[in-house]
Known about the structure:
Layout: E1 3-7, E2 10-13, E3 18-25, E4 33-39, E5 46-51, E6 59-60, E7 68-73, E8 78-83, E9 92-99, E10 112-113, E11 117-122
Parallel strand pairs: 2-11
Antiparallel strand pairs: 1-3, 3-8, 4-5, 4-9, 5-6, 7-8, 9-10, 9-11
Amino acid sequence: QVQLVESGGGLVQAGGSLRLSCAASGRTFSRYTMGWFRQAPGKEREFVGTISWLNDSPYYGESVKGRFTISRDNANNTVYLQMNSLKPEDTAVYYCAASAGLRSTTSRDYPYWGQGTQVTVSS
């Protein structure tokens, strides 16, 4: 199976920045579509962004568009989520996900998931 491990979460003030990392192992990472999702307590899992194996045309959820950036380093089997201008409503557990298929905004299209990393934004 593909194994994913997120890191880089923590506590940050509103307006600050964080960069999350997702390290992958177990399969051919360079050909996998990667996605980021988040989930706050009592809420459904929300799409954040996705990127293809070619690192082209990343797609973002409306609530983070213009503030978050996805990138990947296939040589090191790692995908990143750069988060700028953070808001308290960005507080959530952030999950990395992988799929052998096309880019998707739906969590069910991603069979492989990391354990999540907590991001807390204070006002």
